[in-house]
Amino acid sequence: MEVVIVPDSAAGGELIAEAMAELLRSKPDALLGVATGSTPLPVYEALSAKVRASEVDASRARICQLDEYVSLPYGHPESYRSVVLREVVEPLGLTDASFMGPDGTADDVGAACLAYDRALAEAGGVDLQLLGIGTDGHIGFNEPCSSLASRTRIKTLTQQTRQDNARFFDGLDEVPHHVITQGIGTILEARHLVLLATGEVKADAVALAVEGPLSALVPASALQLHPHATVVVDEAAAAGLKLADYFRATYAAKPNWQGL
């Protein structure tokens, strides 16, 4: 696992956006897996700016969802389909046809999960998957004690995660209890995993994921199993890393992120 410590969230966003741009320059129809929440917004803003400046052509890019709430209609502003269309697809100048996501409104949610796993495989797999990390170490909505071999499936959110997400709704009672999420096994099939974490509140989770033991209690620690995983953190989120100075020195010797 490669760890890159950046000064702030804007620098992290620019770094990851340039990695996405480099991927699109070499593979114009790359499938980019995106995450929701406030943390990845600087990535999408920086990538959109590169498209507007004609630094990269994203017209053939494909976008896929990491997870989705169960029962929220497509038009609900906080359904992750709506969020991804609003924050990623539209700013990049793409159409809905470029977008893939699980159907959280399906009558048979289990079948919808299987269908999404198949769709990702039939699309050739995810080229770069952007991830966030929860304060409890979850990735996607794979809560602690999720199987490290899990596939796309329905999950029940913990009270902590519902509280963390309540800021996007009109109170905790409006946050759904269930979600569809790519499983850890599904996530690990992406060719490049990039986890972005910012803020002191994520420091403990980052330290456990990067330097702790591989454990189902910390789902993000599964990135240790991946042959091409990059963790980008700001100084606050890096506060718990024992090897922070080593990571800084390593990145200083390769500041343009080439070869990742």
From TrEMBL:
First-tier enzyme category under EC: hydrolase
Residue ranges annotated for the Glucosamine/galactosamine-6-phosphate isomerase domain, each copy included: 12-225
Pfam entry (one): Glucosamine_iso
Segments crossing the lipid bilayer: none
Reactions catalysed: alpha-D-glucosamine 6-phosphate + H2O = beta-D-fructose 6-phosphate + NH4(+)
Pathway: Amino-sugar metabolism; N-acetylneuraminate degradation; D-fructose 6-phosphate from N-acetylneuraminate: step 5/5
Keywords (A to Z) from UniProt: Allosteric enzyme, Carbohydrate metabolism, Hydrolase
Functional description taken from the UniProt entry: Catalyzes the reversible isomerization-deamination of glucosamine 6-phosphate (GlcN6P) to form fructose 6-phosphate (Fru6P) and ammonium ion.
Name of protein: Glucosamine-6-phosphate deaminase
Species the sequence originates in: Streptomyces lunaelactis
